[in-house]
Automatic annotation (TrEMBL):
This is Alpha-1,3/1,6-mannosyltransferase ALG2. Belongs to the glycosyltransferase group 1 family. It comes from Caenorhabditis briggsae. Its main location: endoplasmic reticulum. Residues 13-189 form the Glycosyltransferase subfamily 4-like N-terminal domain. Keywords: Endoplasmic reticulum, Glycosyltransferase, Membrane, Transferase, Transmembrane, Transmembrane helix. Residues 207-378 form the Glycosyl transferase family domain. It is found in: Endoplasmic reticulum membrane. GO terms for biological process: dolichol-linked oligosaccharide biosynthetic process. GO terms for cellular component: endomembrane system; endoplasmic reticulum membrane.
Amino acid sequence: MVRVTILHPDLGIGGAERLIVDAATGLKERGHSVRIVTNQYDKNHCFQETLNLDICTVVKWIPRSFFGKGHALLAYIKMIVAAFYIALFYRDTDVVLSDSVSAGQFVLRYLSNAKLVFYCHYPDRLLTKRNGQLKAAYRIVIDWIEECSTGLADVICVNSNFTKGVVQETFKSLQSRELTVLYPSLNTAFFDSIQPSDHFGNDFNIDAKYIFTSFNRFERKKNIVLALDSFAQLKSNFSTSDFAKFHLIIAGGYDKNNLENIEHYDELKKHAEDLGLTDNQVTFLRSPSDEVKINIIRKSRAVLYTPDREHFGIVPVEAMYLGTPVIAVNTGGPRETVRNNETGYLVNQNAEEFAEKMKEILQDEKKYQKLSEEGPKWVQRTFAFEAFSRKLDEIVLSVL
């Protein structure tokens, strides 16, 4: 048995959080002792499996920003404080698995005897704009901390070959380091345990024959506007009576404490109105439960996956396993997860091409059935929970 402590910034319901929950569950099932230390955890805004995990929340009192500024600096400080907590109170830890924010490894490397595994989703320096000289100077320090602290790990994992290439190109000091690709998994047993249902919850009911769905956090970088634009473009290809059979669901993680989530949700609703899409045609759903999410995907004709250069993206894997074709932007992680013309489509980032494939899935039943049947087979072979947990177990054992 290996004593593993997982260090994660915010245990909400995003893709990074899904991976951490699966990692904890997988290691626990393989007989290891697992606990999670996090800066933020809300039992009303989490994955269901976390209720059965050993979770410790520290430094909740540190804000996420100072009047909308300093997000990265405060995230680094919070992770450093959490790392001190592990070093002081969890001294029996054999391995610390951390992800997203690497700054805590400065503390863990020199104050803890534990081996360090860091899971890099994507370099933070590539996700931040540098507006103005002050911001640019501030980011020089933050970027240096990110690169140096990432390099302190005994093993560095990445979520895709795409991310591997980006990390090696971005962090020059890591170009000679071996990076281990560990694809995020899908807990297929949990998906199988959810009984099919036409009921999506108490908030809404949809009678449309064909549903298209976008699942992403309400963040601007997720490019959810493209899903609305594509649906509006699809509308122009059909008569009013035919289009009445279609519906678009915009769903995803929504944190009431996250200003961008609040603002972008309102921006998307306004954009739908500007496109002439009514409430009878588009439904916005904030933080649906796992059961609702799974059954929405099952009922969908296709899932629209709109982020550009997404590092991995678990939603296409979830959709394919449930037999729902995916239409995704032909960049980043989806190029490794979606098999073009076999489990879905990879297209350019514009509404016209998305709408063209939506139309094809609607009108070509034979093609739709083929995509639907191949998806689950592909996921079982490549992204099943068993394959993920087995490889992670090997990494944890090898680092010792």
